[in-house]
Prior knowledge:
alpha+beta; 77 residues
Amino acid sequence: MDKTREKLWRYGIAPPGGTCAVSMEKPIRFVPRQLQVIACPRCGSHHTEKLAQFGSTACKALYRCLDCREPFDYFKL
């Protein structure tokens, strides 16, 4: 899995963070989720902003780095 994440990073796509567990039961959340900090795959900066919830496909979100000003895709879990 790490090799795949590294390939996505080198291609300019921020790989998903964390792990994904397949379960039919989902917990009910009564508090808002904490914002996830996404690092820029080009310069490594954590100073990024989400431009769109859905990118070129429904499984991607569109982000922009505020340091290098480059847009990038992020694979959602």
